[in-house]
UniProtKB/TrEMBL annotation:
<dbReference type="InterPro" id="IPR025841">
    <property type="entry name" value="CP_ATPgrasp_2"/>
</dbReference>
<dbReference type="Pfam" id="PF14403">
    <property type="entry name" value="CP_ATPgrasp_2"/>
</dbReference>
<feature type="domain" description="Circularly permuted ATP-grasp type 2">
    <location>
        <begin position="83"/>
        <end position="457"/>
    </location>
</feature>
<dbReference type="InterPro" id="IPR016450">
    <property type="entry name" value="UCP005522"/>
</dbReference>
<protein>
    <submittedName>
        <fullName>Uncharacterized conserved protein, circularly permuted ATPgrasp superfamily</fullName>
    </submittedName>
</protein>
<dbReference type="InterPro" id="IPR051680">
    <property type="entry name" value="ATP-dep_Glu-Cys_Ligase-2"/>
</dbReference>
């Protein structure tokens, strides 16, 4: 296959925004450099680059977990060599929109666990808040440093066929994927030496330093003891836990490595107990403290919540932040922005239906083939119903389950996610993508790493990009 054939085989998906092409013959200007490189590079070289990327990922041990794969759950993370490129103007809007959204969400969390003005003013019902499985009554009245609850977030964006970015969901509990963003960039540097500086691509490698700075700010000590609390080696994001701990130069610990004495958290060392000041936890709320949540948990630390309430340790993200990324709460984020900030949302929500509302349930049921239904506390692409792919029997069974607790489900129209060129089987072919930029909040404001994780639905025609569901990723280039 010639290089011309490599380009000529690319078929645009009808009524879908393509990141690289405006039409079959025209390339968007931000892709000029990489397109010229692909044209002059032989298929054999591109194949070798693809194989090199696989070898590098295998050597680094970059893995993820597919829980429903009969061949084994541990997989090397699929990577597509063709980068996704975002212009400076596009990134400016994304950055402003995410900062606005996070300011409002943080104010919402503070309000809900304290005065609850948003309930008293009738913007959100008390019933919705208290029925949310991620609402922690244990956080009521707890003061957190600098009133920052959400220190680390990964806001999922999609570009619809109108070319606009929409917020798919807010990941505010223990967002993952940043290690893949970092590794993707390191691979791109090896695959395309000289191309990144020529394209004026902004760097992402400073993320661990940015994160460490935010964590350090939380303590009044000049050199606080910061640890990363992991559930352990069987967690799907364990590779990320080890990578971030190593890059920040902090200890990676499990629950059994920590102990609470006199409302103070200590780490067990060969030299005795050492006080812990800041915990970047990757353990979910329910498993964080067996004395207050799941009594059977062996992943957390008994008494850690009491130490947190006393102000003797800082936990990142704050417990209870899941109230703000519940899919039932997502519907109200534009209202939060208007209520707390007195501003119009910069980034739009996707139209969302609450199935606890009988009228909205009836509408969704009648238009089920055009809908995706999700659990309000779901994540990772699990437990969804894609109406256009499901059989009549599957739809009937799913709706019967929804009827048992309809308030625990939401529905959204099936969107046309934008496509980007992927190098698959020696050809450039379009695949659906989304984008997860990573934001860090602290006492000095919000910083957003100029890039993010672009996830790819590797199966042709699929809209499911989650790595746990067999998706992959590609490097994200944000231009200066």
């Amino acid at each position: 296959m010639t290089n011309d054939a490599l380009s000529s085989t690319y078929e645009l998906v009808p009524k879908t925004w393509d990141e690289m092409h405006t039409d079959p013959t025209n390339i968007r200007s931000q892709y000029d450099v990489i397109n010229a490189y692909l044209k002059k590079t032989s298929p054999d070289i591109l194949y070798k680059k693809e194989e090199l990327s696989k070898q590098l990922f295998m050597k680094q041990g970059v893995t993820f977990t597919v829980y429903n794969d009969n061949e084994g759950i541990e997989k090397i993370f699929p990577f597509d060599i063709v980068p996704r490129i975002i212009t400076a103007a596009e990134w400016d809007k994304i950055e402003r929109g995410i900062k606005q959204r996070l300011k409002a969400l943080n104010l919402f969390i503070k309000d809900i666990y304290n005065e609850q003005f948003i309930i008293k003013d009738g913007i959100i019902s008390a019933e919705l808040i208290y029925s949310c499985p991620n609402f922690l009554r244990e956080m009521k009245g707890v003061k957190v440093p600098y009133d920052v609850y959400v220190h680390i977030s990964g806001v999922d964006l999609i570009r619809n066929n109108d070319g606009e970015f929409y917020v798919l969901e807010d990941n505010l509990r223990t967002p993952s994927g940043v290690s893949y963003m970092l590794e993707n960039r390191e691979i791109s540097k090896r695959l395309f030496p000289g191309i990144l500086p020529k394209s004026n691509v902004r760097g992402v490698s400073n993320y661990p330093n940015m994160l460490y700075k935010k964590l350090k700010e939380l303590s009044i000590k000049p050199n606080p003891n910061i640890v990363l609390l992991t559930p352990g080696i069987y967690n799907s994001a364990y590779y990320e836990h080890t990578t971030l701990a190593r890059l920040m130069g902090i200890e990676l610990v499990e629950g059994s490595d920590l102990v609470v004495k006199n409302h103070t958290v200590y780490m067990k060392t060969t030299n005795g107990l050492k006080q812990v000041d800041v915990i970047y936890r990757r353990v979910d709320d329910d498993f964080l403290d067996p004395l207050e949540f799941n009594a059977k948990s062996v992943l957390g630390v008994a008494g850690i919540m009491a130490a947190y309430r006393k102000g003797n340790v800082n936990i990142v993200n704050a417990p209870g932040t899941g109230i703000a990324d519940d899919k039932a709460i997502y519907i109200y984020v534009p209202d939060m922005i208007k209520y707390y900030l007195k501003e119009e949302p910069i980034l739009k929500n996707i139209e969302t239906y609450q199935l606890g509302n009988p009228e909205e349930y009836d509408y969704v049921a009648k238009n089920i083939k055009d809908m995706v239904i999700k659990k309000t506390d779901g994540s990772g692409g699990y437990g969804m119903l894609m109406g256009h792919e499901a059989s009549e029997a599957e739809i009937k069974d799913y709706l019967e389950n929804v009827k048992k607790k309809p308030e625990n489900f939401i529905a959204q129209p099936i969107l046309r996610l934008s496509t980007a060129p992927c190098y698959i089987d020696g050809q450039l072919t379009p695949r659906c993508i989304d984008l997860r930029p990573f934001a860090l909040s602290g006492r000095d404001g919000i910083d957003i790493c100029p890039g993010g994780l672009t996830r790819v639905a590797l199966k042709k025609g699929s809209l499911v990009v989650n790595s746990s569901q067999g998706g992959g990723s590609k490097d994200t280039w944000v231009l200066q």
